[in-house]
Task: structure prediction
Amino acid sequence: MKSKVILLHNHDNAWTPEDLVEVAEDNRLVLAALRAHGYEVVEAKVYDSVAQALRDKHCDLREWTVFNWCEGYADRPWDYAGVVDELEHLQYVYTGATPWTLRVTQDKRTTRALLHDAGVPLRRSRTAGRGHNHRPWPVRCKFLFHSAKDNEVNERGCAG
Result:
């Protein structure tokens, strides 16, 4: 028997009417794809509380897996870690990263330090200030080719 899946998604008070249409279509496509593969699926929309959205669905946490597509709350967009904190507190099995991972990876410097300390090889990079290449935001350049012999760098990998 296939798993039962809850598509958990959110509402954001800042979304435009066009955004709402796009989100509804994206949700419809995901629900249809899961159903086409034989999953029993329900959707739960989060406004202020993951617990409330799931309680309204009456889904036994022992039977359902949460497909976590929720980015935050209506008044707190981008609170990924807060959403997952609630899922863990409720003891649901869910897709995605842990609250710790979501919080740590919001800071690139911390992430790079942790990866370095764990022995993970990292590309050399540098940050170009605002206005670089006429962009209003900082640009992160990752060097594609690096010659250890002569320490030359080809910056064709500059992205942003």
Strands lie at 4-10, 40-46, 64-68, 93-94, 125-128, 139-142, 145-147, 152-154. Residues 145-160 have pLDDT under 50 and may be disordered.
